[in-house]
Write a structure and sequence with these properties.
With about 170 residues, the chain is mostly beta strands. About 5% of the residues lie in helices and about 60% in strands.
């Protein structure tokens, strides 16, 4: 048996789902305290025909990022389905914080266009710190944490290699 959590209504509601294989294309699905017999057939990548108990349905899946949009008849249901383990990991990641000095490094070789902060300046997590021109595009490199800029080791106009240290936040 596999256990999943459906995240509905933009994260406002979670529904526990147990799925048990009951033969080729057949499943016993427990949603809350109700058990359903489901016969599913995948037509192509995004279309699924299924019979839930005695009712026939067709669903079209639109997978854009982590969110899944399921179209059943004329209604669209945005949802996310995660295993219990993935849900626990996601919740744990939200509570982790970065400690100590954190270097900001160039993800690609390029040219530093702008340094937006100076040593000693207070910054917040996600704040743009450096603008790097790489592969013909301007890339804002952001602070990995709240803190203070400990050092800046590059200046505007400087060419940097991939992985080069640009500054540090602590």
């Amino acid at each position: 048996m596999s256990r999943y959590v459906a995240i509905l209504e933009g994260g406002k509601r979670e529904v526990l789902i147990d799925v048990e294989d009951d033969g080729p294309g057949c499943f016993r699905v427990r949603v809350g305290d109700r058990v359903h017999s489901v016969d599913a057939y995948r037509h192509d990548y995004g279309t699924l025909s299924f019979i839930v108990d005695t009712a026939s349905h067709t669903a079209t899946f639109d997978d854009r990022g982590a969110l899944l949009r399921v179209r059943v008849r004329d209604a669209v249901f945005p949802l996310e389905i995660l295993s219990e383990q993935r849900l626990r990991m996601r919740r744990a990641l939200g509570t982790l914080t970065v400690e100590g000095r954190q270097p900001l490094v160039a993800p690609l070789p390029g040219r530093v266009l702008k340094v937006l902060v100076a040593a000693g300046e207070e910054v917040t997590r996600g704040q743009p710190l450096v603008v790097l021109l790489a592969l013909g595009m301007e890339n804002e490199l952001r602070s990995p944490r709240d803190g203070t800029v400990a050092e800046v080791v590059v200046e505007a106009g400087q060419d940097v290699a991939s992985g080069a240290r640009l500054l540090a936040v602590e």
